[in-house]
Design goal:
The chain is an alpha/beta fold. It has four helices and six strands; from the N terminus they run βββαβαβαβα. The protein is 30% helix and 23% strand.
Length: 123
């Protein structure tokens, strides 16, 4: 999902292509994050390297930079959420990854483990 400030030049478009964001400044999660790697790979396939203006540990910090009009961001649907001060746009092409969870069949899972598995299955 692309996060834009309310008055962004692409605000009126219902969906964005990644190529349209090539000249923008980005706020990204830390380099070690999966989302950061997915963004770099997607941008490379789209023919550009993102101009990373801010690197943050938390999506909430990224959203603040975007809301102030300092940059844009690309986050997962769950991280993007819905914020009244931000525009959240679908993007194409989409980026995806596969998450594999393993646990012992004969072992009882804690409530937290079951809740995590349910969360991942819905994502």
């Amino acid at each position: 999902m692309a996060l834009l400030p309310e008055r962004h030049r692409l605000a009126a478009q219902p969906e964005l292509r990644l190529e349209q964001l090539g000249e923008e400044s980005f706020a990204c999660l830390e380099e070690e994050s999966l989302v950061h790697g997915l963004l770099l790979s997607a941008c490379e396939r789209a023919g550009f390297a993102p101009k990373v203006a801010f690197t943050c540990r938390e999506a909430a910090s990224i959203k603040q930079f975007v809301a102030k009009g300092l940059c844009i961001a690309v986050l997962t649907r769950g991280q993007a959420g819905s914020e009244p001060s931000l525009l959240v746009k679908n993007m194409s092409p989409t980026a995806a990854t596969r998450i594999v969870l393993c646990w012992k069949k004969d072992r009882r899972l804690s409530l937290a483990a079951r809740a995590f598995i349910d969360y991942v299955n819905k994502a």
